[in-house]
Amino acid sequence: MSVESQDLNLCANDNRGQLQLGAGSGLVGWDEVTQGTVLTSFEGDATGIANKKAEERLYSDFNSYTASVASWRVNKPVFNRDICIDCQNCWVWCPDSSILSRDKQMLGIDYDHCKGCEVCVEVCPTNPKSLLMFNEHADLDESLAAWPEKKKKAKKSEEA
Amino acid sequence: MAITSIKNLKEFSTNNDRFEGAHTLCPGCAHSMIVRELMNCTDDNLVISSNTGCLEVSTAVYPFTSWDTSWIHIGFENAATSVTAAQVMHKVRKKKGTLKDNDAPVKFVAFGGDGSTFDIGFQWLSGAMERGHDFTYICLDNENYANTGGQRSSATPVGAHTSTAQAGTHSYGKKQKKKDIVSIMAAHGSPYVAQLAPNKWKSMAKGFQKALEVEGPCFINTVSPCCTEWKFDPKDTINLTDLATDSLMFPIYEIIDSHELNILYRPKNIISVEEYMAAQGRYKHLFKPQYRHIIDEVQKDIDAKWDLLQRREEARL
Questions:
Q1: Average pLDDT value for chain A
Q2: How far is A147 from chain B (nearest CA, A)?
Q3: Which of A136, B115, B213, B249 could bridge to B153 as Cys pair (CB 3.0-4.6 Å)?
Q4: How far apart are CA A29 and CA A32, in angstroms?
């Protein structure tokens, strides 16, 4: 454990996303922590972390990666692999590092960290969008079935 | 320096994020877009220091940290001071050979909000620039003290409603003009100063890489639309940044060695400031008949500034 000179009583945190921010997780309070306590981001050596993918890293319980903000969300973005062109617009503009991209491919959404801000939907360039907002409790298959059809471009004469 | 490829977004997306999710910034906040981009544009070790502000309080909520790098939080004033101290320490220990890995390249970056950059930390930033340390200071400019309830800062533009410069029957919001921080920093003799925006990700990543690479104190002002205090829908963060850069409220440009000015983005269709203001709740009152003249005044000011930038680019001064 990466905690030194401190008897922090950690709750079991094997299931990622179980620990809610500020939800009284069994830790001593911030005002009870003694001087010299170290809360590190990783277990053990963190050298070369820039070259490790998230799944290869040894996150400690103090890294916010192990926490979840899923409860912030009202609507969730749903990803439709069939329409996606892997432009990675959603990846570069996601404020919550929640777009899972590996080897230039968009794989899905990290629902533990997504706050449902809808930026990814806004920046999606496909027609119809390959990311759309659905109710938090919506079923994936039902959402995909309810996907809108491709919108035809308005003819110039109609525009005028 | 280990630069990561920014040739296109696909290449860029192979980077591994070192800024983790589940921080408590508002949904749709541009701060984290900018921070992620900075951390993704290099593989080097980073030592980052943050002034008090939204970014700092949201990324270090006890017991969590969202940073996968060394990160120092310090008071409202001294992100620049602390990161330059770390840089000097690194330099000395490298010389003595007492570092764990003596050859590993390390970059030093300070993040500050506009309150801590334009107002409270200005003297400290100026001092650090003058001492000429090798670091990069990035200002996340959301034009108010968003962390404490949206008070006015000297980055707030004319006519904006803030909690301490309120709009009403006798006032149209803030009356003073925004400080031109980029020119001030360029005047310090900094080798690289720029104003960048997250919607133009490539020019932003290029600017960050240049700032990290160049030896000496670099300053970057980035536009960070604040959905809470600018009062717009979180999903429109990037759309609003588009409006900001296309209306030239935030022209994107760089100044190299305090004289070589390059405009990095010229909007094809320049839109009016009115359109930019109409998209935000903080300018709502300007559309009442008694305050409409403010919009024209701001437009005139923006036009004059754009003209000046173009002239400076041509004259290289």
A1: 81
A2: 20
A3: B115
A4: 5
